[in-house]
Every structure is written in C-alpha cells, then in structure tokens.
Amino acid sequence: MELYRFLQQQGFGSRKECRKLVEGGLVEVNGVPAGDYRELIDPEQVDELVVDGEIWEPASLPVYLMLHKPAGYETSHKPMHNPSVFSLLPWQFGMMDIAAVGRLDVDTTGLLLFTTNGQFVHALTSPRRHVPKCYEILLKHPVSDDLVKHLEKGVFLKDDNERIAADAVEVVDEVTLLMTISQGKYHQVKRMVAAAGNRVAELHRRAFGTLELGELEEGEWRFLTREECAAFGF
Ligand code: URA
C-alpha cells in the first residue's frame, strides 16, 4: 500500500493532506524518514509511525476498542453541555469516523465500546440480538425484596406497553444492586428502578456481553483483542 493512503487510513487527514505531510518531511516509518509519499509499505510491518513529531502505533482496521467512561462526558460527537467521550480518544480515531456502540448517560460511568465498523454497532445494538449488559447500581433508598421482585418480574415503563424485566438481579449490599438487562432502551436502568419504587444515585456499566471492564482505569481505553471481537462474531 502507498504510504500516503496508509496515513489516510490511520486518520491523519485527506489523501492530499497526507501527501503533504510526507513531502514536508514530517513522517517517519519504523524510525526511517519517509521521502516519497508513494513508497510502498506493508501495513503489517509498520510498528511505529512518527507524524509531525507525534508517535503513533498503527491501529489494525477496523478499530474496536473499549473506554472506561468517566462521569461528566456526553456520548455524542456534538455534545451540548459537557465534553464529548470522543475527546478521551486519540483525534486520529475521529478522522476514521469512529462511533460509539450505544450510549451511556452523562452521569453514567463504565464500559463503552467504540468501532469504525458500522456492522458491529448494528449487531450489538440491535434489539433482536439481546446482548446482555451488566450494571452496578447505587440506590438512593435501601434495597427491598419488593424492589428485586419487581425488577425480576418486570415493570411497565411510560410510553411502553410491554412489561420489561431484568435478566438477573443480585443484591450486593443494602444500597447496591447488580442488574443485567439485554435491551437498550433510553435511560432504561434508571426508568426501571424508578418504576419499581426506588431511584438510581449512581450507575456504572461493568460488562457488555462477555466483555468486562476489568482493571481499565477511568478515562483509559484499550483495543479489543481478536478473541474478544470473535466472541461477538466479528
Ligand atoms: N440505563 C440508564 O438509565 N442509563 C445509562 O446510561 C445506561 C443504561
């Protein structure tokens, strides 16, 4: 592949901008300054790029990654009142049209997936796929047997005629629940808890399908492994 096309794929701008980067002497491939933008490279053999003084470890395409979302970030490219979750990722991914897989509310923390593969977004957010998502819920009022029963049996959400139930509910302590749901309705967890007679004080997504947040620190991201993608059929 020609170097400038590779740079474009990695999110360094349009083909013209990428040609200019090489012509301006601003690109190094594996430590060697690049002179010709048409130089043929094997993407698999590029371990390190330096572009305009910035080190870039090339991403395998399509990109699949997880972020530990902190509170106070909007899951939107055009946020209204808070910074965007996309500002927590390298800007090159924005140039690759990366998208979030579903949304987390501004005050929700935890596992948020991103990809440049539209089919992945569709597959994982499709109501037919029923991908389970596990949330840790800090309640405003102490947990009761009644609350757990309601969530397990199902509650009616406003503007929705169907009863909606959790796949699983586990009481962690007096004010903490783990709840798994496999739909992705708007504010679903908060609305279910409210319909069952309590309120959510804090919400954190621990897992999406078989993927768990693990040790990833708040605000940090990492690529998914091949095995993790394969678990979703990709
Ligand atoms: N349910 C909610 O209410 N909010 C989220 O952010 C995710 C699930």
Please give a quick description of this structure.
The protein is 22% helix and 27% strand. It has 234 residues and is of the alpha+beta class. α1 packs across α2.
Describe what you observe in this structure:
By secondary structure, the protein is of the alpha+beta class. It has three domains: 3-56, RNA-binding S4 domain (Structural Genomics Hypothetical 15.5 Kd Protein In mrcA-pckA Intergenic Region, Chain A, Roll), CATH 3.10.290.10; 64-127 and 216-231, 2-Layer Sandwich (Alpha-Beta Plaits), CATH 3.30.70.580; 133-208, 2-Layer Sandwich (Alpha-Beta Plaits). Helices cover 22% and strands 27% of the residues. The protein has seven helices and 15 strands. Strands 5, 6, 7, 8, 11, 12, 13, 14 and 15 form a nine-stranded mixed sheet that branches. A four-stranded antiparallel sheet has the order 2-1-3-4, with no helix packed on it. It has a two-stranded antiparallel sheet with strand order 9-10. β6 and β7 form a beta hairpin. The longest helix is centred in the N-terminal third of the chain and has 9 residues, at 15-23. Bound molecules: uracil. Uracil (URA) binds next to α6.
